[in-house]
Specification:
Layout lengths: L6 H17 L11 H16 L18 H13 L8 H14 L2 H12 L5 E4 L15 E5 L2 E11 L7 E7 L10 E7 L5 E5 L10 E11 L3 E2 L5 H16 L3 H18 L5 H29 L8 H23 L16 H10 L9 H12 L6
Helix pairs in contact: 1-3, 3-7, 4-5, 4-6, 6-9, 7-8, 7-9, 8-9, 9-10, 9-11
Bound molecules: flavin-adenine dinucleotide.
Flavin-adenine dinucleotide binds next to β1, β3 and α11.
């Protein structure tokens, strides 16, 4: 095993670093959970696209650079080290993009990947329904075939940033007599199509990124179906694999947080309880271990392997690590941890409280950790169904 970077990878790292140093906005952008902040993040997506950085692993004809997953990890390391903004199109580039690469027809890839890489079309994920969250196979939204079109009806919920996005990829029942995992299809729809109503769900922090989506006889061309009719469950599980096992949470995100945590600890060491030192070290080691594990996954995929049920162990690991890191930071800050961003004395310390609140959602989104444990028990350990 050779863990050294090749000269080509090192040159690539340098190129990314230089471009980001010249382009990353000097001021932190407003949160992408609000319209003004989202617009700023979309402008940043377009800036990235101007340098062909939309998604480096995609072929150049779709706006990528034809690179491999190790180079993507290098890109992500430089991206997080440069303090670059969160990706407004994360649902598109990290979830739908790899799925389209695997299941899309060439003209679907040309149509949808290109505008995703360029930041012209921003995507939301529309899978969950009021009665179909953990139990996603209970999806009730329907897609009725009429000639060359599907007619969509139903109610989706918890769609991140659908209020601001242009398109959504949804799971629909195409076979009306079907039950559970059978008879489902993955279909794209424009969020401004006639019959679509997107309603914001205000969050506890006052932001409005989440949405419910109501669909009433929404007509879309059959071209918008990904894969075969009835293959939706299989495709969604492939998307969930990329989400949980690789792309949604790149290791650099946690390595940067661990570095910030070490700096925070050094600044406050004198006031810290001795147990905090061990928690800081654990956070640092966990972030490094996670990075090595993802490098191993990326190498396996490059060699032709697939992501399987082990994506669930990965998801549990990063979501629990994120909470632990933020809790440690709050312990270091003591009473200062409670200062919100608008407090005059808060400064950059407020990022830890904000990060902590978001980390609490980690065990829920991308499939709750309890469900991941069921998957591990049944598919990795071969235990009987609970
Ligand atoms: C920040 C965030 C962003 C999200 N973004 C999106 C998005 O963009 N698009 C989208 O479609 N959805 C999104 N979701 C929804 C998310 O996928 C669901 O919230 C999640 O799947 C859980 O479903 P639920 O909320 O209906 O909870 P429920 O399914 O009602 O579960 C409630 C609790 O019961 C537990 N539970 C349920 N069934 C079992 C079981 N069989 N065994 C053990 N425990 C069980 C769960 O683990 C959970 O703790 C998002 C959620 C969050 C928090």
């Amino acid at each position: 095993m050779d863990l050294a970077y090749t000269p080509r990878q090192q040159a690539f790292r340098q190129e990314v670093r230089e471009w980001l140093a010249a382009h990353v906005p000097a001021e932190r952008l407003v949160t992408l959970e609000r319209q003004d902040g989202f617009d700023q993040h979309v402008a940043w997506e377009r800036e990235l696209a101007s340098g062909n950085w939309g998604m480096v692993t995609w072929p150049s004809e779709y706006g990528g650079r034809g690179l491999d997953l190790i180079e993507w990890l290098i890109f992500e390391e430089e991206y997080w080290a440069a303090g670059a903004p969160l990706r407004a199109n994360q649902n598109g580039i990290f979830l739908l993009g790899p799925t389209l690469m695997e299941f899309g027809m060439p003209d679907q890839k040309a149509r949808f990947l290109t505008s995703m890489a360029s930041g012209e079309e921003i995507w939301a994920q529309a899978w969950s329904e009021p009665q179909a969250g953990s139990d996603l196979a209970a999806v009730r939204a329907t897609a009725r075939r009429e000639g060359d079109e599907y007619v969509l009806s139903g109610h989706k919920i918890w769609s991140s940033r659908a209020v601001f996005a242009d398109w959504a990829f949804g799971l629909f029942r195409t076979d009306p007599g079907s039950e559970r995992h059978k008879g489902l299809s993955l279909i794209f729809f424009p969020l401004d199509a006639p019959g679509v109503r997107v309603q914001a769900i205000p969050q506890i922090d006052g932001e409005t990124g989440f949405a419910e989506i109501f669909l009433e006889d929404v007509r879309v061309p059959a071209f918008n179906r990904l894969g075969e009719e009835g293959q939706g469950w299989h495709i969604c599980m492939a998307t969930a694999g990329f989400e949980r096992g690789l792309m949604l949470r790149s290791p650099a995100r946690f390595q940067m947080a661990a570095k910030r945590l070490v700096e925070l600890y050094k600044k406050h060491e004198a006031e810290c309880d001795p147990t905090i030192r061990a928690a800081v070290l654990q956070a640092y080691m966990d972030a490094e271990a996670y990075a090595l594990s993802i490098y191993s996954t990326a190498s396996r995929l490059i060699a032709g392997g697939k992501i399987g049920a082990e994506a669930s162990t990965n998801k549990i690991f990063w979501s629990e690590m994120d909470i632990a890191m933020h809790k440690t930071a709050l312990s270091i800050l003591g009473a200062r941890a409670e200062l919100v961003r608008s407090a005059p004395a808060a400064g950059e310390d407020a990022r830890w409280l904000e990060g902590y609140f978001f980390s609490l959602a980690g065990p829920i989104y991308a499939g709750s950790n309890e469900i991941q444990k069921n998957i591990i028990a049944e598919r990795m350990l071969g235990l009987p169904r609970g």
